[in-house]
Amino acid sequence: MKRFAGAIGASVVLLLGAIAVVPGWLPFAGGEQAQAQVALPDDSTTPTAVPVRPAPAAPKLPPQVSDVLQSGVLIVISKPTQRMFVFKDGVPWASSPVSTGKRGHGTPAGMFPILQKRVHHRSNLYSNAPMPYMQRLTWRGIAIHAGRLPGYPASHGCIRLPYSFAKSLFSLTKADTTTVVVTNEAVRSDEGAITLALNAQTSRPVVPGLPSTPALAGIPAPSPVLPVQASPVAPQVAAPRFSGPGQTIQLAAATSPGEAEARWTGLVTQYPELAGFRKSVVPAVVGARQFYRLRASAPGAHAYCAALKRAGQDCFRVS
To answer: Does 277 share its domain with 195?
Structure first.
């Protein structure tokens, strides 16, 4: 009997030894993970299998406001006023009432890209609800789409639009040239909307004697960000320093380059935001007289020009 038991034990040892030398297999472990953890013999030329996890995708950032004001679409949504303002290439395109998130499902404030667009879409979170002309802002369920507008915040976080407006906006936007700004600030005009969006990304110095305004709620801005509110006689429209052409406005005409420079100095003193514009003096002959036109360029310059006019300053659009 002892001889028989010893024979069985020897057989089991031989069997386990044979199993142990089979590449890619371990007892009591299964699947691909077990295979990946097996080290092959030193003389093997086959590399060891190592599970590779894909790196998480970097979050998509929206284009700079100054860029889309030159070529693209800027959308500003004010939650307090329940209104959307849309600009195409820096020019007001249209505005519309909206319905944002109700209490407990608030629409987040911030600056967003367009991540996805679908004409026909249904909610994955809320009873398969239809979301026509959906433009996704986040992967957590926030989007712009057509829906019911009762006149107050009523959605589960999305931005609802009238059907016809949502359809037109869907045709206007492109994912890589559209920036959406959602704010907790009350915005009631195109000028206010474009100013708020520009200030969200503009690093500006503090001008002595002028009160500063808070940064755009919910949007992290470059440091330091100290948007400046103009004095009561100056239009409350800020313009950033920039390197691109932007939009051009004309402020005055002078009879000499020196006079044009002096006028520019006076204007910048009265309206400090103009210091962020790119100034140019353009010679021109009108009739038989020589003039020097004082012009300034910046993203959003047309909106600033409109504010200057309301403040009593001569200004008109050039390009």
So the answer is: no
